[in-house]
Write a structure and sequence with these properties.
The chain is an alpha/beta fold. The protein has three domains: about 10-90, Udp-n-acetylmuramoylalanyl-d-glutamate--2,6- Diaminopimelate Ligase, Chain: A, domain 1; about 105-315, UDP-N-acetylmuramoyl-L-alanine:D-glutamate ligase, CATH 3.40.1190.10; about 325-465, Protein-Tyrosine Phosphatase, Chain A. The protein has 17 helices and 21 strands. Helix 3 crosses helix 5. It is globular.
Length: about 475
């Protein structure tokens, strides 16, 4: 029987039952959204007062209720409008478990060192074309983001897509066990979080924790174009996964990417699957984007979505802010092209982005690179930063700006003639870049999120958008 599309997300009674909490509120009261941020409340909201690294949600309960939240899930404090539980974050996880238990959706979990958010979005776009789909927003992929996204899963959804991230071992396993996907995607394994793992093998084993939550009969979808593919295959089998599907340019990939072509704005390839061949055409550049889209094609096939629907959906797929989004600012005859790669960086994503930038022609000026530190690389950080030099040179950049102490290794490799400026912080770089950029230039900004280059993106947009 089809789910009721008009039914509320929960009632107060549902929440009390799921969490074991106590409340004086009317059990029939509807709840249609769940939030952990009092500044961002949806309709008929439940505010969950979790304790984060910088804030305790309990300090904002009264504010949330005053702003219209129907109820607050709390672990301390008294007053009207509250549902009291032992621990608010665990209460959110209980609510997430209840949402998953009642759902009939095909659920996809996505992790990987590079491309997981973009791949999650590609999968969302494809599944959304086939039926009601719920997906993680932004990069809500950690110990509070995943349960929050899962708690928002409507009972009527036919598909769910959840991103899972990590900064250390034993973090993905509980997330996957919460999500219980029928399809588990690992985009790739690349140097990231070396401080916590020390090796690519350690990173691969941590990514493989996603298999521990895969439902019986589920499918692992693995990028085959990296050296840890055999380790991931073995880990999947050890976890009892018998359905393993691969994608990539590797000759033995189940979904093989061939005849790759494209330019600074598009990418296309032939995708071979079994006896069939299809043309995959994207309105975004880069081999890595073709890989992300091919993962979405494989997931769509497993989920029973017609290939024509998937291909049509991917034709309109675009890059997100911070992950390759391209924006033209200013006059149409000589705009500034801003390529926003500010959200994250490791050697694999840096090399991929620089390869795309190499094909880019400036609208009428120079090609400018602003590169920030790649964080959490541990003792190999200097070596890995220096290794970017060939890709930087091949990008054809006229000006190269570097931000952060770790970029000293790349600065030394490029030499003084190859670097226009190297500063410690994004704030210092802002004034330099503002004074140097001009309409007609093409500028790409990329670095780890912790470097703060997102603020530089906003400054560039503010200066060039409306002039």
């Amino acid at each position: 029987m089809a789910a009721d599309m008009t039914a509320p997300l929960y009632t107060i009674g549902d929440i009390v039952s799921a969490t074991g909490g106590t409340s004086a509120l009317d059990p029939a009261t509807p709840i249609n959204s769940v939030s952990i941020d009092s500044r961002d409340l949806g309709p008929d909201a439940l505010f969950v007062a979790i304790r984060g690294d910088r804030f305790d949600g309990h300090d904002f309960v009264d504010t949330a209720l005053a702003k219209g939240a129907v109820a607050a899930l709390v672990s301390r404090g008294e007053g009207p409008g509250r549902i009291v539980v032992g621990d608010a974050l665990e209460g959110l996880c209980d609510l997430a478990r209840a949402a998953r238990a009642r759902s009939g959706a095909i659920v996809v979990g996505v992790t990987g060192s590079v491309g997981k958010t973009t791949t999650k979005e590609a999968i969302r776009v494809v599944l959304e074309a086939a039926g009601p789909t719920h997906a993680s927003i932004k990069s809500f992929n950690n110990h509070w983001g995943v349960p929050l996204m899962l708690a928002r899963l409507p009972q009527a959804a036919e598909f769910g897509v959840f991103e899972m991230g990590m900064s250390g071992p034993d973090e993905i396993r509980p997330l996957s066990q919460l999500v219980q996907p029928q399809i588990a995607v690992i985009t790739t394994v690349a140097p990231a979080h070396f401080e916590a793992f020390g090796s690519l093998e350690g990173i691969a084993r941590a990514k493989a924790e996603i298999f521990d939550g895969l439902l019986p009969g589920g499918t692992a979808v693995l990028n085959a174009d990296h050296d840890q593919i055999d380790l991931l295959r073995d880990a999947a089998r050890d976890a009892g996964v018998s359905n393993i599907v691969t994608y990539g340019e590797s000759a033995d990939a189940d979904w093989r990417i061939t005849d790759v072509a494209g330019d600074a704005e598009t990418a296309n390839a032939t995708i071979e699957h079994g006896p069939g061949r299809v043309l995959l055409a994207l309105n975004v550049p880069g081999r890595h984007m073709l890989a992300n889209a091919t993962a979405a094609l494989a997931v769509a096939h497993i989920a029973g979505v017609e290939r024509s629907i998937a291909l049509a959906a991917l034709a309109g797929f675009g890059a997100q802010a911070g992950r390759g989004q391209r924006v033209l600012l200013g006059p149409s005859d000589k705009p500034l092209l801003l390529i926003d790669e500010s959200y994250n960086a490791n050697t694999a994503s840096m090399t991929a982005a620089l390869s795309v930038f190499a094909a880019q022609v400036a609208p009428g000026g120079r090609k400018v690179l602003v590169l920030g530190d790649m964080l959490e690389l541990g003792p190999r950080s200097p070596e890995l930063h220096a290794s970017l030099a060939p890709a930087v040179r091949a990008s054809g950049a006229d000006r190269v700006y570097l931000v952060g102490p770790a970029m000293a290794a790349l600065a030394a490799e490029l030499g003084t003639e190859g670097v226009a400026a190297h500063v410690a912080s994004a704030q210092e770089m802002a004034e330099i870049v503002r004074n140097d950029l001009a309409y007609g230039d093409a500028v790409m900004v990329k670095g780890s999120n912790g470097v703060g280059l997102t603020a530089l993106i906003e400054i560039i947009r503010g200066q060039f958008e409306n002039h």
